[in-house]
Backbone:
């Protein structure tokens, strides 16, 4: 007996078992049975069982292979159209190749079955007398009827007619036998021996029931000769079934079928039926005319197609409407008349020539919906009703063919065309559209933003893909479009204009300010380094489109665009226009951030190519010839390339060092500075621009203390330039066209001298540190010393005197003002550094300052033109005119822009008539003079008396600042410089001028506003304002002029308020209560301590403060970058007066969140909180308007931190007193009206969560404190969220026993709690439950007891129509009230009348119920069998 194989047996064992089985000739355990094929009948599959039918089908069987294809894994690859183009080698074996491609023979061969043709009609060819078949001619089509749609070709029409004729042949045969039946025997539908049908059925239904052949069943596939008989038998059975049914039954069955069948199947059946109806109608016509049947056969063959119907009636209507709208085309409509003599034009197909006819005139659609915008090839918007000629090439055959122009969607489609010219044209047009959009030309015409729409559609990556195109024209067009998208030449112009302003060299990076990205970063609490590294890693993991959605430049850098631009410059070597566009793009990328500058510097051969090709030391002299047309910019010096290097150097001192040394820019600087622009072999304008950019690059390098060794080498050149500066005066008077460029070059030279002077000013200090034995990092002294720079000051001062004489000449002064501004800044820097030099005699320095004051500055200040300058401050201010720095209409958040497109108006901060740069430089010089020579302070007292300056300051601090954007940040930074210098001058005046007190309040308000507005990079200014201005007693004259006494007198008389200003009592009754005047007097005396408290809490700004001080103090050797920090908002938050309190609360909260118990708080915690409250009280009393930007709810939330910090901290005597004093301020009627707890509060995620924490703290450590209780009660006013009240009466009812604030001590009117009546059913039930259960009693919580009684009384006696649930609830509550055992509570709930603050209860009671209430009460309580009426109040 054979055994089964066991695990572990080898393949040889299996073969041995197989041989034994075959040798034994045993029967297998499994029998193979072939399944019957449905197409072979039911008799089986053997040949002996098959009946010898005539239609036996030939079947090719592959015995060795299965009938079904095996699953091929992997699937066979698709055949390629270019497979024949593959390379084949001679020694390659074809069999191996076949085996490698065809894995199984069944992939090619399988079971082959002959098609069933038993039911196909065979037509014999028509005998003709011609020896050959007759040739088909096109001319015959005109006499025939076209089949189907007119869009078919002639060949397709001919074949369709032939198939229709073949199908109609059997019907025609039947038609030949019709005359054998008597005409009168024909039924109403032309059929013989058919019974009549119900008259209610229409002609169509009757036709279906009398049809001799089925519409759907054909019998094909039955595989027998009797298939026709089977079909007819089924058809007759169906007809008999239908005849036996009524019309209602038929309709019911029809509905059932339609509900069960798929809609697509129903549509298919309808189409099958519709295809047959045409034949039936033809047969009906032919049966009515049997004698003409044979003669009309050809016509019938061609007429079958006309009877095809569209099954969907809706489609029929739409087609019918289209046919009505179509206009028949004739020869007259065509611009060119076709002739039959033309080849293949003997039969004109007019529908194919429809595109040649004239377009209809464009009609303005009278609709409220906007129409699609269309643009010309110049990028201009074409009006919707513009009728432009077609020869302009603006019409096409797409949608709205009658309208000229291309839509953005069509241009996108065209930009991916295979035709090079089309791609180029589309990119060029898109670039022009973007350029015009950024200029604001479409703002009033189009709805929405063109740039935002393009970026959302993927325009950025369309340009990036096109940039990789191998065709030069496409590449050039994409570069131009990308430059239009990224770069604003007007922005660059104004950045160059402000380069020589005070601190104008430093600029904010062009990083977009994205709120969504900020929200993501706020979720991750990381410190500086970890945060930057985490953000960089996150950007690397993001897809390119996601990064570009927030920041376009960062997205482009992620696509390695710098490498592609380098390839274009180095290898493609495009035309000059493309080169300039690429340099502009690189400049914009360099302005983005220091990281972007690093990526550009690290790009292989990019900087080398720019320096070698566009900043060469020698070039073809023919370039300078007039009329010379440059065909290539390679090998020619270019000012744009020098500007790119200068912006790149602004990214950091290390980048500048690499440019100067590795890329040999130091030799280029010597080359372009040593030679006069007139001698450079370049066009004059380009030569001046190149020289200007070279001086600016040198100034940037000198700003880091680098490249100062060139100063010694080029000193004669600088002296020669300074000697020629007075000549600019004559050129300005003569209105030379090169004056503006020459003035810009002169300002760049003076800016360079400013930074060289600053660097030399600290040379002695650095040398002394280096010589000393101090440990630590030693900074080597610069190669330039003070005596090398001091000799240039006389040149500049002499030139300044001459220029200031032209201040009354408007046009001349306007041209020379930039240069005069830099002169003022230079003198301020020079005298500041001179006073610190050990080699300079201090007395000589002071005498020079006195001479400068008497000879130059004092005569200048009395000039009438200076008065007009101060008057222009207000019209040109960005703070007084916030719209002047609003974003452009087409600005997008992902592309940083200064919104200077189209230029700024003359009367704006950076406009041509702006006094800000000159007055800022003048105040900078005056401040340095008064700081060095304090005796000259009184000489400049007239500056603060200018009416224009006072009006400007008064309006600027009261007007809310514009939102922080790249545009507003750039402008406001310069305005804040002027305000700071005014305040710094005021601080010096306050100690020396007795008449200064009249300006003190104004200047203190300006200082307080400036503190909450200063932007990152100006931390030094914020520190100086905090140190010398904000807490300076001289700027709070109320402390000396009877302010505390006035506050006490106001409280006594209750002036301006009807609120109770008495401070709530406390559990610590042994603390003596102080008046508000006494508290203010104590706070005023503690101002130095308050200042030290705030300065210590801003210590986290120390790193940024150090960098800012290096820039403002001129310590160039410490400056790391000319790019300021990213702008996310002001340095200090608007609620910075509460900062120490918030800091302590966060410290405690964070410790508790980590599970730590903060047992020991700082030793000076009480003092810190007290000083914070003192400062807030001073501001709320004497500078209330400076805190108007903080919502009252935010102030209240910050004050709640007193109770949430440090357990029983609020019980400390000074903290308790000042908190009570502030509460009395916030409980004034006007302040309470402005209180809104439902609005989002800055710095607070949820006020509800804060209030829950306050309730939990009150439960734990309140000790029944009345002041704490008032803070708990304040948010429960009726107009605030009901969830706050639900929290008290639902989850924290235990506090109701400790809220013992009496009605006399509560400073808020109870009407704010009881009006309007409560409508929340859940809260009303909680009110009633706490009253009934005794959890809320008048002795424990008088305020909420009165509130609950008032609301319950109003609810139970309310008879307004409401929902059934509410009505049942109030009736039930009224019945329960009537049944109360507590007579006192029952009396209060039933007889409550109205609030009365003088009553001990807090409300009045009815002596007896009004008749209406009494009747309602009796009606409700009758169900309880209460017959007696309620007794009156005793």
Residues:
């Amino acid at each position: 007996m054979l055994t089964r194989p066991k695990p572990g047996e080898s393949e040889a064992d299996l073969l041995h078992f197989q041989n034994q089985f075959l040798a034994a000739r045993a029967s297998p355990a499994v029998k193979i049975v072939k399944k019957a094929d449905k197409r072979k009948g039911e008799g089986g599959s053997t040949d002996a069982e098959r009946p010898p039918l005539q239609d036996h089908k030939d079947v090719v069987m592959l015995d060795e292979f299965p009938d079904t294809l095996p699953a091929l894994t992997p699937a066979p690859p698709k055949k390629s159209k270019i497979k024949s183009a593959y390379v084949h080698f001679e020694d390659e074996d074809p069999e191996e190749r076949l085996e490698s491609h065809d894995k199984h023979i069944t992939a090619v061969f399988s079971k082959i079955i002959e098609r069933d043709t038993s039911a196909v009609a065979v037509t014999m060819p028509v005998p003709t007398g011609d020896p050959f078949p007759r040739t088909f001619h096109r001319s015959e089509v005109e006499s025939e009827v076209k089949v189907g749609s007119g869009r078919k070709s002639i060949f397709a029409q001919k074949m369709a007619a032939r198939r229709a004729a073949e199908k109609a042949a059997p019907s025609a045969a039947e038609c030949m036998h019709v005359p054998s039946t008597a005409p009168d025997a024909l039924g109403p539908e032309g059929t013989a021996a058919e019974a009549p049908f119900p008259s209610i059925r229409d002609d169509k239904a009757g036709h279906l029931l009398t049809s001799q052949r089925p519409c759907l069943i054909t019998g094909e596939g039955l595989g027998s000769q009797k298939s026709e008989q089977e079909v007819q038998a089924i058809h007759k059975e169906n007809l008999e079934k239908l005849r036996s049914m009524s019309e209602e039954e038929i309709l019911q069955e029809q509905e059932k079928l339609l509900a069960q069948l798929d809609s697509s199947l129903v549509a298919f059946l309808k189409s099958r039926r519709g295809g047959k109806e045409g034949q039936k109608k033809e047969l009906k016509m032919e049966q009515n005319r049997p004698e003409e049947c044979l003669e009309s056969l050809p016509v019938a063959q061609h007429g079958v197609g006309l009877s095809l119907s569209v099954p969907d009636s809706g489609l029929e209507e739409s087609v019918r409407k289209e046919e009505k709208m179509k206009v028949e085309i004739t020869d007259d409509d065509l611009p060119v008349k076709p002739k039959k003599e033309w080849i293949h034009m003997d039969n004109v197909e007019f529908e194919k020539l429809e595109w040649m006819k004239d377009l209809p005139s464009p009609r303005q659609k009278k609709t409220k919906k906007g129409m699609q915008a269309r643009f010309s090839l110049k990028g201009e918007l074409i009006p919707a009703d513009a009728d432009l000629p077609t020869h302009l090439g603006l019409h096409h055959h797409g949608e709205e063919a009658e309208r000229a122009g291309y839509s953005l969607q069509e241009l996108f489609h065209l930009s991916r065309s295979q035709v090079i010219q089309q791609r180029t044209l589309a990119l060029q047009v898109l670039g022009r559209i973007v350029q015009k959009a950024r200029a604001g030309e479409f703002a009033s015409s189009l709805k929405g933003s063109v740039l935002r729409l393009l970026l959302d559609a993927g325009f950025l990556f369309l340009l990036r893909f096109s940039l990789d195109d191998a065709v030069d024209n496409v590449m050039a067009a994409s570069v131009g479009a990308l430059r239009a998208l990224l770069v604003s030449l007007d922005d660059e112009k104004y950045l160059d204009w402000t380069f020589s302003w005070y601190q104008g060299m430093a600029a904010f990076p062009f990083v977009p300010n994205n709120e969504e990205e900020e929200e993501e970063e706020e979720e991750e609490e990381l410190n500086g380094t970890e945060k930057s590294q985490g953000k960089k890693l996150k950007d690397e993991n993001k897809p390119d489109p996601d990064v570009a959605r927030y920041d376009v430049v960062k997205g482009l850098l992620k696509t390695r665009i710098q490498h592609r631009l380098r390839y274009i410059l180095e290898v493609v070597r495009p035309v000059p226009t493309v080169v300039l566009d690429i340099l502009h793009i690189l400049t914009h990328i360099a302005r983005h951030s220091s990281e972007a500058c690093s990526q550009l510097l690290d790009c292989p051969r990019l900087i080398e190519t720019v320096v070698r090709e566009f900043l060469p030391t020698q070039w073809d002299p023919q370039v300078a010839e007039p009329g010379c047309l440059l065909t290539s910019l390679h090998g020619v010096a270019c000012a744009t390339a020098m500007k790119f290097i200068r912006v790149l150097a602004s990214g950091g001192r290390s980048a500048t060092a690499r440019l100067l040394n590795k890329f040999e820019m130091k030799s280029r600087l010597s080359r372009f500075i040593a030679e006069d622009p007139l001698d450079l072999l370049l066009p004059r304008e380009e030569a001046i621009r190149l020289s200007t950019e070279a001086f600016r690059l040198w100034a940037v390098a000198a700003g880091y203390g680098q490249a100062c060794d060139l100063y010694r080498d080029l000193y004669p050149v600088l002296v020669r330039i300074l000697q020629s500066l007075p000549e600019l005066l004559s050129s300005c008077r003569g209105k030379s066209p090169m004056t503006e460029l020459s003035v810009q070059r002169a300002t760049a030279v003076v800016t360079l001298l400013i930074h060289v002077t600053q660097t030399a000013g600290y040379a002695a200090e650095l040398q002394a540190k280096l010589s000393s034995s101090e440990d630590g990092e030693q900074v080597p002294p610069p190669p330039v010393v003070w005596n090398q720079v001091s000799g240039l000051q006389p040149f500049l001062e002499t030139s300044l005197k001459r220029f200031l004489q032209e201040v009354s000449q408007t046009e001349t002064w306007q041209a020379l003002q930039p240069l005069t501004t830099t002169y003022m800044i230079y003198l301020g820097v020079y005298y500041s550094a001179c006073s610190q030099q050990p080699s300079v005699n201090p007395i000589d320095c002071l005498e020079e300052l006195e001479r400068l004051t008497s000879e130059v500055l004092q005569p200048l200040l009395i000039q009438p033109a200076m008065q007009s300058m101060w008057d222009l401050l207000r019209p040109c201010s960005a703070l007084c005119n916030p719209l002047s720095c609003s974003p452009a209409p087409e600005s997008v958040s992902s592309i940083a822009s200064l919104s200077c497109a189209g230029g700024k108006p003359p009367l704006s901060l950076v406009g041509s008539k702006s006094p800000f740069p000159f007055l800022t430089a003048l105040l900078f010089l005056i401040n340095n003079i008064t700081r060095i020579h304090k005796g000259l302070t009184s000489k400049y007292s007239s500056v603060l008396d200018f009416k224009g300056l006072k009006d400007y300051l008064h309006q600027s601090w009261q007007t809310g600042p514009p939102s922080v954007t790249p545009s507003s940040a750039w402008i406001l930074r310069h305005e804040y410089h002027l305000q700071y210098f005014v305040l710094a001058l005021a601080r010096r005046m306050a100690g020396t001028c007795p008449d200064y007190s009249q300006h003190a309040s104004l200047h203190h308000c300006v200082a307080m506003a400036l503190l909450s507005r200063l932007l990152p990079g100006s931390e030094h200014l914020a520190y100086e304002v905090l140190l010398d201005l904000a807490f300076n007693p001289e700027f709070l004259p109320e402390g000396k002029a009877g302010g505390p006494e006035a506050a006490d007198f106001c409280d006594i008389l209750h002036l301006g308020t009807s609120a109770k200003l008495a401070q709530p009592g406390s559990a610590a009754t042994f603390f003596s209560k102080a008046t508000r005047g006494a508290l203010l007097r104590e706070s005023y005396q503690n101002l130095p301590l308050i200042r030290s408290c705030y300065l210590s809490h801003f210590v986290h700004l120390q790193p940024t403060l150090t960098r800012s001080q290096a820039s403002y103090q001129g310590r160039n050797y410490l400056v790391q970058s000319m790019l300021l920090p990213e702008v996310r908002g002001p340095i200090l938050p608007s609620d910075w007066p509460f900062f120490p309190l918030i800091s302590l609360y966060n410290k405690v909260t964070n410790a508790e969140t980590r599970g730590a118990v903060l047992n020991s708080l700082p030793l000076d915690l009480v003092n810190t909180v007290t000083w914070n409250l003192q400062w807030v009280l001073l501001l709320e009393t004497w500078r209330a308007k400076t805190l108007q930007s903080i919502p009252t709810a935010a102030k209240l939330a910050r004050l709640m931190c007193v109770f949430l910090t440090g357990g029983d901290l609020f019980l400390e005597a000074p903290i308790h007193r000042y908190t009570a004093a502030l509460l009395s301020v916030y409980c004034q009627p006007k302040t309470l009206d402005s209180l809104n707890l439902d609005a989002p509060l800055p710095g607070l995620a949820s006020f509800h969560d804060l209030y829950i924490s306050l309730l939990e703290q009150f439960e734990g450590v309140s000790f029944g404190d009345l002041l704490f209780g008032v803070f708990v009660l304040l948010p429960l006013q009726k107009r605030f969220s009901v969830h706050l009240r639900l929290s008290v009466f639902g989850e924290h009812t235990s506090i109701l026993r400790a809220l013992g604030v009496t009605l006399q001590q509560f400073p808020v009117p109870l009407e704010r709690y009881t009006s309007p009546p409560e409508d929340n059913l859940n809260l009303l039930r909680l009110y009633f439950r706490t009253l009934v259960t005794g959890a809320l009693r008048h002795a424990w919580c008088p305020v909420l007891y009165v509130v609950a009684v008032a609301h319950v009384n109003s609810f139970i006696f309310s008879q307004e129509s409401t929902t059934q649930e509410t009505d049942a609830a109030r009736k039930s509550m009224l019945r329960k009230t009537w049944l109360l055992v507590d007579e006192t509570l029952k009396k209060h709930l039933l007889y409550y009348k109205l609030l009365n603050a003088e009553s001990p209860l807090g409300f009045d009671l009815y002596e007896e119920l009004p008749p209406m209430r009494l009747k309602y009460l009796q009606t409700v309580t009758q169900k309880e069998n209460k017959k007696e009426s309620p007794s009156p109040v005793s």
